[in-house]
Every structure is written in C-alpha cells, then in structure tokens.
TrEMBL record:
It comes from Schwartzia succinivorans DSM 10502. This is Bifunctional protein FolD. Belongs to the tetrahydrofolate dehydrogenase/cyclohydrolase family. Gene3D superfamilies: Leucine Dehydrogenase, chain A, domain 1, NAD(P)-binding Rossmann-like Domain. One of its GO terms (molecular function) is methenyltetrahydrofolate cyclohydrolase activity.
Amino acid sequence: MTARILSGKEFAARIKADAKAEAEKLREETGVMPGLAVVIVGEDPASQVYVRNKHKACEELGLHNVSVEMPETTTREELFAKIDELNADPKIHGILVQLPLPKALQSAEAEVLERIDPNKDVDGFHPVNVGRLSNGAGSLVPCTPAGCIRMLELADIPMDGAKAVVIGRSNIVGKPMFNLLLQHNATVTVAHSHTKNLAEITKQADILVAAVGKPGFVTADMVKPGAAVIDVGINRIAPKKLVGDVDFDGVSEVAGAITPVPGGVGLLTVAMLMQNVVTAAKLQLKK
Ligand SMILES: Nc1nc(=O)c2c([nH]1)NC[C@@H]1CN(c3ccc(C(=O)N[C@@H](CCC(=O)O)C(=O)O)cc3)C=[N+]21
Ligand SMILES: [Mg+2]
C-alpha cells in the first residue's frame, strides 16, 4: 500500500482562501483590515524561512503586516516596551514574538508571552488562551495544531472515536494537539521521551502525530496499517535539506495518509496564522 500524500500546499490554500474572504468581509463591514506584527529579537537563521513565508502569506491575503527587528542585546524592559506599544496600536490585531528568544532573554520567555494582550496573541501561547483552549472555548489556538486539525477535517479523516497518539508534549504542539483531538472526540494518548514500549502504543493509533524533533524517529514498524501520520518535525539536517520526524519512504508504505516535510505541516502553520490574525481582529472589534 502507498499512502495518500496530504499536501500542505493544497490544504493551506483552502485555509488562506477562507481567511481572505473573512478579512475582506470584515473590511467591507467595518473599514478595518487585520494587521500582524512579528517581533524578531536577534538573528536565529532557522526562524527566517518562517518569517519570510508569513510575510508572503500576509501579502497574498492583503493583510497589514510589519516586522519589528530588535538586536540580540535587547533587554527584557525594551522588549516589554515594544510589546506594550503594539498592544496599544489599533492597526495591529496580532502580535507574534518569534521563538526561541536569544539566550539572555530565555528566562523571561513566560513573562514576554504574558505581556501580549491575550486578544492579540495569534500564537495562542498566552496562559489565558491556553486556559480557554483547555476549557473548550479557545478562539486563538496555536497555529500548528490548529492547522493539523483543519487539515484532518478537510481531508475527511475521522477523529470522532479514533485512537490518536501524539508523540511530544511541548506547549507549542503536543499539549494543544491533545486538547484539540480530545475536543473532536478522539481517544488521545500523549507519549514522550519517558514513555515505555512506545511502538506498542503508536501501533494502535489511527491518527499518529509526531512532534519530537528527531529526524526519521517514526519508522514503519511503529505505524498501524492505514493510519494517518502527521509529521510536525522540522529538522534541518543540512543547509538546504529539511526533514521531518517520520521516515517518509518507509512509513508511506504502511500508512493510509501522510504529510511530507517540507510541503506539509509548516505550510498549514502559516495558513492558520493568517486565520488567527483575522479572528484576533474580530475579537478586538467586539470589545
Ligand atoms: N512565536 C513563534 N511562533 C511560531 O509558530 C514559530 C516560532 N515562534 N518559531 C519558529 C517556529 C517554526 N515555524 C515554522 C512555520 C512554518 C514553516 C514553513 O513554512 N515551512 C515550509 C518551508 C520549509 C523550507 O522550505 O525550509 C514547509 O515545511 O514546507 C517553518 C517553520 C513556526 N514557528
Ligand atoms: Mg510537514
């Protein structure tokens, strides 16, 4: 069997088209065009692809967008002041502070994320939005997991009653993915680096999500025949070679559906960010 390839390009195009229509309607009705600010502190080369793709997507949708570049030596207070300024800026509806922060600011990461107005938090990382998601009332949900769920819906892959296994328990992917799959009535297991007999668990999954950060970690022997395998890994193994957490060639012989890297989940992440900017603009107009 050869798996159906779930094209990030195709699903991202649908998510962006919906967000674009919503943004245009909002502008007609209120005169407001949603706007995004991306704050980048220092120069992390891995972040640059993402920032470039985000910028292109904003242009494609006609969204207002600004990049705020701050030096590596930025202090916690300077970053707070910038966030306060963006929180107060009526043209900016979404604020994203690119992670990881430089070493000197990493201990302040939680404070930085909490400084962002929760209704402008298009990453969905603010504790208020984490709580809303956990309570089932999330509107600004982390882009990567939200994009994966939207793709499963668009691809008609059933979540209701399915057994889902998420490998990885990060705040950015694993935990919000758990909450979203649960809300869609999947039976969800979260596995991680301390999990025993991992393959025994992953082999039960109808939906297997890999968010580990290790190239080729998920191999064919860990996958149930016919399963949907979502590869969230972004591992740069050479300057121009990006691979996921899934051994794509081996696993695509066993799985029913699989996302490639590149061209998979990364594109969904950017598309869902666009949707979150529009959603954030609506949240602010309601106030
Ligand atoms: N506050 C914050 N929010 C984030 O969402 C965030 C972040 N910080 N820091 C970095 C990571 C990484 N990330 C990516 C998203 C899309 C692609 C992407 O567009 N990938 C394409 C292109 C890959 C390529 O050609 O290199 C693909 O997979 O096909 C990559 C990486 C978002 N992140
Ligand atoms: Mg992918």
